[in-house]
Request: fold
Amino acid sequence: MSTMSRDRISIVEKLKSVSWTFVVLVSFIACVGFVSLYSAAGGHLEPWAAKQMARFAVGIVGMIVVALIDIRWWMRMAYPIFGVMIVLLIIVDIKGHIGMGAQRWISIAGIQLQPSEIMKIGIVLALARFFHGATAEDVKNPLYLLAPLALLAVPVALVIKQPDLGTAIMLVAVAGGMFFVAGVSYWMFGVVLAGAVAAMPLVWHFLHDYQKKRVLIFLDPGSDPLGAGYHITQSKIALGSGGVFGKGFLHGTQSHLNFLPEKQTDFIFTLFTEEWGLVGGLTLLALFSLVIVYGYFMAFKCQNQFGRLLASGIIINFSLYIFINIGMVMGLLPVVGVPLPMISYGGTAMLSVLFGFGLLMSAYVHSDVKFTRRGLEMA
Amino acid sequence: MNRDMERYKQFSRRALLIGLGQTAMFTILALRLGYLEVVEQEKFQTLSDKNRISLRLVPAGRGEIMDRFGVPLAINTPNFRAFIVPEQTTNIEDTLNRLGKIIPVTQDDKQSALVEAEKHRPFTPILVKENLSWDDMAAVELRLPELPGVSVDEGEIRSYPLSTATAHTIGYVGRVNEAELAESDDPVLSIPGFRIGKTGVEKKFDKVLRGEAGQIQEEVNVVGRPVRELSRTDPKKGHRLTLTLDADLQMQVQEMLSRQRSATAIAMDAITGDVYALCSYPSFDPNVFSRGIPADLWEELLSDETAPLTNKAVAGQYPPGSTFKPVTALAALASGVPEDARVFCPGYYMLGDQKFHCWRAGGHGSVGFTEALEQSCDVFFYEMGKRAGIDAIAAMARRLGFGSAFDFDVPGERSGLIPDKAWKAKHYRDIWHIGETLNCAIGQGYVLATPLQLAAMTARLVNGGRAVKPVLVRYIEDVGNQIPAWPDIKLNQRHLNIVQKGMNMVVNNPRGTAYGARITHAGWEMGGKSGTAQVRRITAAERAAHVKNEDLPWKYRHHALFIAYAPVGDPRYVTAVVVEHGVGGSSAAAPIARDILEALQKRDPRRIHTVDDAEQAAAAAPSPRNKE
Reply:
C-alpha cells in the first residue's frame, strides 16, 4: 500500500516532496527584509542586511533539515523540547533578577537567544502533542483541559515576569487558536472571554507603569507627541507620507533622518512602506497571505491530528505576528515589542519562524504517516 | 479511522473559522494602510516635510552710519570669536584648559561654556570667548591641531568711533529682549546673539540698517543635525545712512558742554533743518553697551542725578523762560499791538492786587519791543501777554514748533507743553486765570519746551518763516534724499524783523543781556536770546533775604538757556543750549552758544561738498521721496 510505504521514505523521496514553492515564497519575503535592512542602514549591507542574510542562509537550510526529520520524532520530542525552553526561560528570569532590570536574552555558545521568542513554537509543539492524544469527547471535558492550561500557564507566567507583555499575549492567543481548532467547545471560550473581561481591572492594576502608559498613549497618541506617543505619531507620518507609490528605494526621509524609531526591528514595515508606498505594503501583505493560505493547504493534507494541529498553530502564530506588528505601526494596536516575521532584524525571531516553517513542512512531507496517540508507528 | 475522520471534519470547520478571522485581520490591515497612504497622504506629507526641513537664518551685515562728510559714526568691526564643538573633542574641559594657555579663558568663561554645552546638541558650536585680539586669534589658529573641536570665526560687532560724543544721537545696539521678540515678526531676531538698535538713530532706523537675513534650507535629521543643504539665499546688507551731523563739530560741542555738569546743545541749519551737532552731557561709552552692559555700570548710570543715559536735547523738557519772549512778542504783534507800543517798567507789574516781579528789581523804565527783548524786561511781556491772551500765544507757539513732537530721527522725543484755555479746562477742570497768562508770557508756568523745539523755533524766526523741522538722517543708501522742502508758516516779515532786531541787540548792544558773549569776528556776529528758568517758585522769604541762586543745592538752581543764530546779516546757523541748573542764561549758556556758532561758521559745513552730493548726481532717476 502506498500509505504504508510512506512510513519509511528515503531522503531523496522526502526532498522531492518538500514544497519548494513554499521555500521560494519564504525566501522571497526574506529578500524584502534584506532590501529593507539595506535601506535602513542608509544603503549599506552593514550592520544589518549582511548579518540577516547569513542567518537566513543558515536558517533556510535548518528549515529543510527540520522538514526532513520524521514527524513522529518531533512528536516524541515535543515535551522534551518544551521542557528545555521552560528551563531557558527560567535561566533568563534568574539572570534578569541578578542583573539589572528586564532581561530577555541568554547567550549559548556565543549565540544570543531570546527564549520567549522560540517559546511561541514550543507551546505549539506541546499543545499539538497533547491534543493529538485527545478524543472529541475529551476536549469537551473542562477538567481534561486543565493539563493544557497548565502547559500554557507556566511559560506565560515566566514571560510576564521578564516582563514581556507582548509575547505573553501572543502565547495566550496562539494557544487559544489551538484550543479552538482542537475542538474545545464554544461555550468554554465564552466563559474564558467573559472572565478575561471581568479580570481587566485587576490586570490593569498589575501592569507596569510603562505598560499602562503604552495603552493610554495608544488610545490617544496625540496626548504625548514628544514623549512615548512619538513612536506611533512618527510611524504614521512615515507611512502616510509614502503615498501610493512611496518615496522610492533609499529615499524614505523619515527613516533615514532617524525620525523613525527602531526602524530595523519593530518599525521596519513603516520603513518599507514609506519607500514603496501602498503598492509595496499591499504586495507584502499578499505575500504573507500566500504563506498562510499555503500553510492551510499543507495542514489540510495531513492525515494525522498532530500534523494538522502543529501546522495550524504555526500559521496562527505567524499571522498573529504580522497582525500585531503591522497593526501597531499603523496605530491600530498599542506599541508592544513584536517583530515582523522574516523582515525585522533579529536572529531569534527569524530562527523561530523558520523552525516553525520547518515543522510545518515536516508535517506536509510526512502527511501520509499515521501513528498512535503516543506517536509510535502503527503496526 | 472513523474517530480521526470526525476529528478531521471538526478541524476543518474550526480552521475555516480561524481562516475567516485571519482574512478579517488582514483586510483591516489593508484598509488601514490604504487610509493612511491615500486619504491622509497629503497631511502626513506635510508633517514629514516639517520634520525634515529646517530653515537657518544668516544675519545680514548692519548698515553703517556716516556723518555728512563720510566720517564713520557707527561701523562693524571684526569680532574674533573662539568656539568649541563638544562632540569633536574627547574631553571638553581638558581642551578648554589647553585653550586657556593660549588665550585668556577665565574660570567663568569655562563654566558658562560647559553649561551651554550641556544645554545644546553635541554638534552645536559653543561660544567660548569673543572680542579676541588679532594676535590671540592668530595664536589659536596656529595651534588648532592640538585643540580638537575648537574653531575661530570672524563675527561682527558694532562700534562707535566717536564714543561718548555720539552716544545719545546714534544710540547703540543690544541683544533682543522678550518684548521686542514678541512685537516683531522678523525671524532674524531669534538668532542667538543678534543685536538690534536700542536707542538713537540705531533704533529709529533699525529696519533700514538691519538688512535682510539670508536663508539656508537644510535637511535635518531627528536631532537637528544638518544633513544637506537644499537651498540658500544670501543675506542683504542693511542700507548705509548718511547723517546731517558734522562729526568734528559734534566732538567740539560735546567738549564745550563738558565745562558744565549737565548740559545739552543743538546746532542746526536754519534753512534746511540739517542738524550739525546734537549733544547731551554727561554721556557714556556706547561701545561698552553694544558688547553687553555690565550690571553695576548700568545701575550707576541710572542712579546718577545728571541722567547720563537721557538724551536731554530731545527728551529734556524745560520751562523756556525768557527764550520764549519772541513768541509772546510775535503773538502780541499779530493780535494788533502796534509795533511802536511802549510799556513803563517800575520793576514789577500789578494785576489787581497781585504783584508780578521783573527780574531787575529797579525796573527798566519805558521800553518798546526791541529794548524789552534786549534787556529781557518781564513787565513788558506781562503786558503783551495780557493784551494777546493765552490762546493767541499758544497758537503762535505751535506755529513756531512748540507743543508737539517733530517725529525726529532720534527716538525718545518729548512734546513739551503749550497750555491754553481748553487744555486747562481739560486737565484741571478749571477756568484760565490771567495771572497764568503772565507767567506763560515769560516762558514760565505751565510752558515746557525741549531744546530741539527751541532750536527749531530759532530757525523759523530767522529763515523768513518757514516751518523747518530738525533733520538728522540726510540720505539713505538706495532710498534717497531725506530732506524735504519746508512750507511757509505765513509770519509777517516786519514782525520777524522787529524780533530779529531785538535779538541782535541782546548780544551786540552793550545793554543787551548777552553782550559779554558776543562774536567779535566781523561778519560772524550772532543774535540770540537768553533765558533763565526757575525750577521752583522763589519764595517771598528767599526774595526778601536776597538768597543767591548759586547758593542753593544744585538741583534747585535755575536752568540756563540760550538760543542764537548767525550771522546776523544773513542768518543761516542756529543753536539752542540748555545748561541744567546753570543759574544764568547769559552767563552759563550764552558762551557755549557763541563757541558753537563760531565753530560752525569757521567750518561752514553747508558750503562743503558732501559725499552724497556726488552719489545723488549719479542716481539718474529721482528718488520716490523727491517726487512727492
User: Anything to note?
Assistant: The first strand of chain B starts at residue 53 and ends at 58.
